[in-house]
Amino acid sequence: MIATLLAQAAEWTRPDIDWHGIAPELVLVVGINLVLLIDLWIDQSKKWMIASLTGFIMLGALVPVVTLAVVGDDVRSMFFDRYVVDDYALILKALFLLVGYLIVLMSQTELEEGGYYQGEYYVMLLVSVLGMVAMASSRDLVSIFVSLELLSIPAYMMAAWRKRDVKSNEAGVKYYLLGVFASGVLLYGMSYLYGTTGSTKLTEIGTALADTEGSLLAMQVIAVAFVIVGFGFKVSAVPFHTWAPDTYQGAPLPVTAFLSVGSKAAGFVGLMSLLFVGLYAADGVYEPFIFVLAALTMTVGNVLALRQTNIVRMLAYSSVSQGGFILMPLAVIASGDAAESALKAVVIYLLIYALSNLGAFAVVMAVSRKTKSGEISSFGGLIQYSPGLGVLMTIFVASLTGIPPLGIWIAKLASFRALIDAATGIAYTLAIIAAINTVISAAYYMKVLREIWMRPVPDGDTSEIVVPQPIWAALGICTVGTIVLGLFPGLVMRFADLPDLTGALGG
Amino acid sequence: MYAFNFLLLSAALFSFGIYGVIARKNAVMVLMSIELILNSVNLNLVAFALMNNSIDGHVFALFVIAIAAAEVGVGLAMVLMIYRNRRSIALDELSEMKG
Question: What residue ranges define each of the domains in chain B, with the CATH number in brackets?
Answer without folding.
Answer: 3-89 (1.10.287.3510)
